[in-house]
């Protein structure tokens, strides 16, 4: 997950439309990218950002404001937007990759599998 990808997905404008201020948006994007690059707890993410990351230089969020408690709070706030954010990201990825949503159903009730030479029904 890169900053460019976040821009293409229009996460910042989405969060702004939901009433988030600029600092919250920068913090959220910093956190999302950090967790995508190095999935870990908020405590470990805080340590990684402060010790071995240029994410704040990329997003413009002040590295001094990175604390585990602030990351916990922004995580909770992002979670409260989960359904709307998932819908937004689904629409954006469909637009970016020219994809149509389709539902495909496949009935496996009478399917025959052969695993390692042993028959399974």
What's the structural blueprint in terms of helices and strands?
Blueprint: H1 3-9, H2 11-17, H3 22-37, H4 42-52, H5 55-59, H6 68-80, H7 82-97, E1 113-115, E2 118-120
Antiparallel strand pairs: 1-2
Helix pairs in contact: 2-3, 3-6, 4-6
Protein described:
The protein has 121 residues and is mainly α. The protein has one domain (3-120). The protein is 62% helix and 5% strand. It is built from seven helices and two strands. It has helices spanning 3-9, 11-17, 22-37, 42-52, 55-59, 68-80, 82-97; strands at 113-115, 118-120. A two-stranded antiparallel ribbon has the order 1-2. Strand 1 (113-115) and strand 2 form a beta hairpin. The longest helix has 16 residues, at 22-37. It is extended and about 60 Å long. 19% of the residues are buried. The mean pLDDT is 88.
Question: What is the chains' assembly state?
Answer: single chain
- Helix tally equals 7
- CA distance, first residue to last residue: 42 Å
Shape: extended
User: Helical content, roughly?
Assistant: 55-70%
The domain tally reads 1
Biggest β-sheet: count, sense, barrel?
Answer: 2 strands, antiparallel
Can you count the beta strands? Answer: 2
Order of helices and strands: HHHHHHHEE
Secondary-structure class: mainly alpha
Average pLDDT confidence is 88
Strand content: under 5%
Instruction: Write out the strand line-up for the largest beta sheet, numbering strands in chain order.
Output: 1-2
Radius of gyration from CA coordinates: 20 Å
Task: Give a brief rundown of this model.
Helix 3 crosses helix 6 (68-80) and helix 4 (42-52) packs across helix 6. It is extended and about 60 Å long. Helices cover 62% and strands 5% of the residues.
């Amino acid at each position: 997950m890169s900053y460019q990808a976040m821009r293409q997905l229009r996460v910042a404008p989405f969060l702004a439309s939901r009433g988030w201020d600029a600092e919250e948006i920068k913090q959220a994007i910093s956190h999302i990218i950090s967790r995508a690059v190095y999935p870990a707890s908020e405590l470990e993410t805080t340590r990684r950002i402060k010790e071995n990351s240029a994410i704040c230089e990329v997003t413009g969020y002040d590295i001094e404001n990175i604390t585990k408690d602030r990351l916990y709070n922004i995580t909770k706030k992002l979670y409260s937007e989960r359904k709307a954010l998932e819908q937004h990201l689904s629409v954006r990825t469909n637009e970016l990759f020219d994809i149509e949503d389709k539902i495909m159903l496949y009935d496996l009730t009478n399917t025959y599998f052969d695993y390692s030479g042993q028959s399974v029904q």
